[in-house]
Amino acid sequence: MRAWGADVAGLVPWRLELARVQFAVGNKAHATQLLQEQLRVPYGVDERTRGRTLRLLATTAAPDHRRKLLSEAVNLLQGCGDRLELVRALGDTGQTLQRAGDSAQARLLVRRAYQLAQDCGASVLAQRLVRRDTGGLPAAPPVEPVEPEDGLSEAERRVAALAAQGHTNRQISSKLFITVSTVEQHLTRVYRKLDVKRRTDLPARLVAYAEPLPEELQSAAS
Asked: How far apart are CA 141 and CA 164, in angstroms?
């Protein structure tokens, strides 16, 4: 393909597929080299290919760098609309957070990945998430059920979910196409309704407030 001048990463991402094979046979170094080359191919890389590449590259990275790579992969895959690859990236992120001891945030992301997989009709992938990502997940700290008299609006839920995932107010405003001031107003009401003082308290409180997990996910996450 190089000889023909047709080595376009997004058109035929052969390095990405070959890297998957190299990982499968235990050749991690060659797989990593292929993935890094994939990102450097001329003419750019489309969002889907770059997102998939970063997700695989994250498996070879140190924990702190892995989270950064996965975060970018999630944003890219969400932007391009590849929901199945997004499920995989969210699952990998949840597993990474679990290993780092952030069980509340891990459970939130795994739940999102599980529901998205179910929405796509990918039941096998959904069950794989349950077995792989939540099988050893420690129980979250006890949280009293949250039943605010004035429930969260749909807009408040969206803002709260993004804030719980670590997005800044400016990032949230960009994603939801609202002003930063509106984000701040939504969060002020969310904090009051859920009785939280800090942004870092949101993941656990949202888990308590949200609809119950599917039965199979509850048993795996407890």
From this structure: 16
- Listed by start position, the domains of the chain span 144-222
Separation CA 185–CA 155 (nearest Å): 11
- Dihedral sign of CA atoms 173, 179, 184, 185 in order: negative
Cα–Cα dist 137/151, whole Å: 29
Residue 15's nearest CA partner among 3, 31, 29 is: 31
pLDDT of the chain, 222 residues: tens digit per residue: 455 444 555 556 778 888 888 878 888 888 888 888 888 876 556 888 899 999 999 988 888 899 999 999 998 898 888 888 999 999 999 889 888 888 888 888 888 888 888 888 888 888 888 776 544 443 444 434 444 445 788 888 888 888 888 889 999 888 888 888 989 999 999 888 888 888 877 876 775 554 443 444 344 333
**CA distances (Å), 156 to each of 19, 162, 187, 200, 211, in order?**
41, 10, 7, 17, 15
Domain 144-222: CATH class, spelled out: mainly alpha
Q: pTM here?
A: 0.57
In contact, 68 and 74? CB cutoff 8 Å: no
CA torsion sign for 131, 133, 138, 142 is negative
Asked if residue 57 lies in contact with residue 19, where contact means CB atoms within 8 angstroms, the answer is no
